[in-house]
Amino acid sequence: MNGVKFIRENGGLARQLSGNDHISGLIVYGEPDVEKKLVLSVKEADAISASNPVLFYHVQEFFRINEGAKLYIQGVLNTDGKFTEVKNLQNFAEGNIRQLAVCDFESGANTLTASVATLQQIALDLGKRNIPLSLLLSVGIKAIDIPALPNLHLFNADRVSVVLGQDAGGKGKFLAQTNPSVSCIGAVLGCVSKAKVQESIAWVEKQNLVSTAYPKAETDNKEVARELDILGFADGSKIEDYTPSQLDSIHDKGYLFGTKYTGITGSYLNDSFAAEPLTSDFAFIENNRTIDKAIREVNRVLLPKVSGPAYVDPDTGMIQATTASALESICDEALDQMVRDGEVSGYKVYINPAQQILKTSNLEVVLKLVPVGTLREITVKIGLTLQK
Which domain of life is it from (predicted)? Predict the structure, then answer.
């Protein structure tokens, strides 16, 4: 029909999300250097689209999943395997990054174990400065590597998760023709930033990975599927080419990738694993993000008290009970808000008054958090009967 057509476009106002839990970082190794910068939308990264197509793609994917978030980015041509840029980017962001993705598509699977260990130590170092973060990692993967991938649940790297998934029908597939193993780490980072700290990034009701297809001009003018509607792995293979038992084997090793569910459209992450034993309290991303937020919140209220006076009982030399109680109360204030926001189920703050501050100038505070559970499996018993 002839006439004038109008198309409503979203995102022009660049409205930002409230809070800080969505603040993220992204570093891509293997493309020309891009100086550290904060981007608030895809448009602000347009200048790198030609020189750094992988970095730009992951920026697009991040904002496709979580529009309105804040993203610090950096491109690095060569890596020495030390990932010092992670610390530098966190410092550039003044410690505000909550989750950061490292896409090292130039390095092979043989570097995976060392890279996970290095990133874990970086996360521990940052944690000691009370600026903790969760890390995502993807590396170059070939078909021959898939069966021999190490079991991440045998690692002790609770701050690191490894992304193995990749788009197999859209722009990700197109880019992988010239940049193998681009992965879907940008989309996964978007999921982490979108989720509340207590939520799994694999929550089916909330975290559908499929929303739109990219313009044909960005995919060599070919017809393409919606991004992550056709799922694969970073070696270029498709999920549909694997048997259920093979997929279970990769899942059981703790890698993150996309999956489909019968009876519902869309694509979803298989889980929220960290490279940590499943028996650990910190085996999943949401466990770590929850305790990280508690650390930041309690640090925020306790830090002003550092080097302040601490009154003691003149008869015992121990800290006064009223002083201990007052400090407990300010911690309660921070954690009460987390309870109200549904981020923890409950908590306990305790300061033992039998502490000789005059001798040590050190005060020990004990925090115990009751986390929010995650329904990873639902078992339904069903059968036929003569009567209900």
Answer: Bacteria
What is the amino acid identity at position 265?
Answer: T
State both tokens at 215. 């313009």
For the chain, state the CA radius of gyration: 23
How big is the chain, counted in residues?
A: 388
> Using CA atoms, how far apart are residues 167 and 200, in angstroms rounded to an integer?
21
Q: Note whether 183 and 193 are within 8 A (CB).
A: no
Record the tokens describing residue 40, joined without a space: 């608030």
Q: How confident is the model at residue 221 (pLDDT cuts 50, 70, 90)?
A: confident
Determine contact, residues 301/331, Cβ cutoff 8 Å: yes
Are 73 and 34 contacting, i.e. CB atoms less than 8 angstroms apart? yes
Q: Which of 117, 94, 103, 126 is nearest to 20 (CA)?
A: 94
* Other C-beta atoms lying within 10 Å of the C-beta of residue 18: 7
Tokens for 221, please give them. 């003018």
What is the tens place of the pLDDT at every residue in 133-177? Answer: 999 999 999 999 999 999 999 999 999 999 999 999 999 999 999
Sign (positive or negative) of CA dihedral 379, 380, 383, 388: positive
User: Residue 160 and residue 280: Cα distance in Å, rounded?
Assistant: 14
CB atoms within 10 A of CB 219: 18
